[in-house]
Hints:
There is one protein chain. With 361 residues, the chain is mainly alpha-helical. It has helices at 3-17, 38-50, 59-72, 77-81, 93-96, 98-101, 111-124, 128-141, 174-182, 188-194, 225-229, 258-265, 270-275, 280-294, and strands at residues 24-25, 31-32, 152-153, 202-203, 213-214, 246-247, 256-257, 305-306. Helix 3 crosses helix 8 (128-141) and helix 7 (111-124) crosses helix 8. Bound molecules: protoporphyrin IX containing FE (HEM) and 2-acetamido-2-deoxy-beta-D-glucopyranose (2 copies).
Amino acid sequence: MAFKTILTFALLAVVASAAPSKKVTCSQGRVASDAACCKWFDVLDDIQTNLFDGAECGEEVHESLRLTFHDAIGFSLSAERQGKFGGGGADGSIMAFAEIETNFHANGGIDDIVEAQRPFAIKHGVSFGDFIQFAGAVGVSNCVGGPRLQFLAGRSNISRVAPDLTVPEPSDSPDTIFARMGDAGFSPNEVVDLLISHSVAAQDHVDPTIPGTPFDSTPGDFDAQFFVETLLKGTLFPGNGSNIGEVQSALQGEFRLQSDATIARDARTACEWQSFITNHNLMVSKFEAVMAKLAVLGQNPRKLVDCSEVIPVPSVAKSKSAVLPAGKTLKDIEHSCRATPFPVISAAPGPATSVAPVPPS
Ligand code: HEM
Ligand SMILES: *[C@@H]1O[C@H](CO)[C@@H](O)[C@H](O)[C@H]1NC(C)=O
Ligand SMILES: *[C@@H]1O[C@H](CO)[C@@H](O)[C@H](O)[C@H]1NC(C)=O
């Protein structure tokens, strides 16, 4: 048989074997591509009302997004190569073994959201690993201009305790962070892509005297303000002094992690950092891509069911470009990408920006 004919048959076979449409109608007439996805609509309704205070992008959302990382990054390719257990990745172990993993230093404060989420996972009979990634994806969809993350369901509920020291610390150098993240399969630029999450984030524990102090001026918006504001020359501490992992920020009421400051200025990553400032679409698509990777660390995605349709469509971004906070000029920017000039962005009008804390909910 001619090669072309074989190819035609092969293509036909692929088409024929492609799963037939399993479209099913779930509660409230919502349609899913697979019956296994229906229960996630019920989880969605429950957590939007009872965990996220009516689909807000507040503290529980921020913490849930952070938790997707702290569960998944318990994963080490080098340990696996040496025949050791490097952690099961996005396997729910941080919830199953909370009494051990939440005591790891880098997991400071994560116990709150683990305990807040656990009853929902148990009530709905879904695995801890699935629940953590689902809650993060739903949560960040509540943020203005947010991403619509992929959600694959079907992670096993059986896990083992992740080893300590897999979660980066804000006092770690870029070399240390890039090495650790590389050991989980992420390039330095993908670390920047993951740090887009810090656009909707605040700290409670680096300086415990000022809980709720955000990393940018708009912690309820999934926007690029974080990428501008971290590049401003640091001039002040929002609290009463320097803590381990903290450096000076540029705005009253805003917190700057040492790791965000150094990665923003590192020659390996400064251009990726700058690239989001005037390109909201790029920022969203890079985050969606890197989170799809994070969410299946240690998993075989072909064994999971795509239930992404359950994730809400986020509201549209207010603007495609970040601005300079009021009171700042381009001279205050520590331009760090050698290849590309700093983009021309406008300055917000009015008196110098100061940032209000994220209220606890
Ligand atoms: C380079 C590695 C990273 C370091 C060193 C780091 C460090 C930190 C620190 C120290 C905090 C403050 C925690 C507290 O005091 O309450 C924080 C918050 C946060 N992080 Fe990261 N992070 C990193 C990567 C990530 C990634 C990959 C994600 C998600 C994909 C993420 C999401 C968040 C979120 C959403 C918060 C805010 C939590 C809240 O407001 O309660 N971080 N991070
Ligand atoms: C998952 O495991 C935990 C114990 O770690 C258990 O409490 C929970 O009910 C299990 N969930 C499912 C769906 O099996
Ligand atoms: C910062 O505040 C805390 C709590 O109010 C206090 O214990 C500590 O001494 C203060 N540190 C400085 C340097 O003022």
